[in-house]
Amino acid sequence: MRDVNIPKQGSLICRGQGRSYGDAAISSQGQVMLSERLNRFLAFDDSTGILTAEAGATLAEILETFVPRGWFPAVTPGTQYVSIGGAIAADVHGKNHHHAGTLGVHVTELELMLADGHRQRCSPEKNESLFWATLGGMGLTGIITEASFRLIPIETAAIMAEHNPASDLEVTFKWLEDTDYDDQYTVAWIDCASARRHFGRSIVMKGHHARRDELPDDWKDPFFVPPLCSKSIPFNFPSFVLNRFTMAVFNERYYRHQGRKKGSFITDYASFFYPLDALAHWNRLYGRRGFLQYQVAIPDPYAHEGIRRLLEHLINSRQGAFLAVLKRFGSANAGLLSFPVAGYTLALDLPMTGKKVLNLLQQLDELVIKYGGRVYLAKDACLSPESLRAMYPRLEEWQRIKQVVDPERRFQSDLSRRLQLAGTL
Ligand SMILES: Cc1cc2nc3c(=O)[nH]c(=O)nc-3n(C[C@H](O)[C@H](O)[C@H](O)COP(=O)(O)OP(=O)(O)OC[C@H]3O[C@@H](n4cnc5c(N)ncnc54)[C@H](O)[C@@H]3O)c2cc1C
Question: What keywords are annotated for this sequence in UniProt (predicted)?
Fold first, then answer.
């Protein structure tokens, strides 16, 4: 057990790899504790696949060590540059949420450093209210120092993938819900530059961990670990490069290019799960002003209508999104602030254009609330406290637990203050 010291005074927030898009892991009025050096693997049981690691260990480190032994994280987000602590605090989901749920449901035990400096273990069976408040609790219940979680066995490190163009939004929904079509990992990239008869057209991308007998004879190493990124965007692109015209061209080209890959094909896991990791500083493509990620979940039975209305509103606003990803979510878990709910999730990358895009997001928030949905806190930068309350019905339950474990509100971030997450008292 390593020493982790909570400062005697002032507020504190823990930071993992800083991959949350908004202000969850920063604090302009307090201290930020970096967790990178808390990165040892402590135990691995190969009869259950349960790995115990310090919370600063990254997915990249786990992949590098465990893929060659035939194990893979049960749930992975779209980047391997996240810490386990950060991924649990956001209760991240992956392309397999409709089958596997969030990372949190594969966590068997956590060790937390509480505000008073005591270490406390919690799990779905022990101190369960603290456990479910910590999954998705954005670092505000305490510092996760260690976690035990399940890895899944794989026969190879490759992915058997397939891309299919869907002509409009209805076809996209149909495929994402078709259990015969579905695979272990399924997601749709939406061309949100197209309106009218192509409205909501997409490339539906699916895949599974390839079996040995699916690998081509010339595939050299079945447990090949792709090297980490070597290319980098060296400078901020000028802002004028990203405009409605270039976004429409990008979307058209991407749709044609990805749709051309007919039939199934074998690819390495990094190309399938982590396309953005291949390019360090990819955010510089958005120029100095950057961009906003906006991810929402809309529950069944309103999900189709809600997603349709959100996309229509986006297209009518004439502010294109560079990337839009649609995915079916399975059931919610017991995490009080966990984001996924059974239905659909839509993630958008929107160039930062100041008031224009902020107004748009406010209008989208209203639609999300109307359809009973919520915004993902790990990606949020703009939500208001009122909208948060309308979106997360178990917020008050979470606040009561926060009050018990951190009565002086030692754990605070810019996100928690902006959203008055711990309440106004
Ligand atoms: C390219 C890209 C793709 C992504 N794809 C997905 C996706 O598919 N699905 C998804 O769910 N998310 C996705 N994300 C979001 C990302 O997975 C989450 O934001 C995750 O929390 C980032 O982990 P981190 O270690 O960088 O945490 P940070 O950003 O550093 O922190 C995130 C939160 O976790 C808290 N935290 C960090 N470490 C600890 C700790 N040890 N104890 C307690 N709290 C802690 C912080 O206080 C903060 O509130 C993506 C992000 C990027 C950049």
Answer: FAD, Flavoprotein, Oxidoreductase
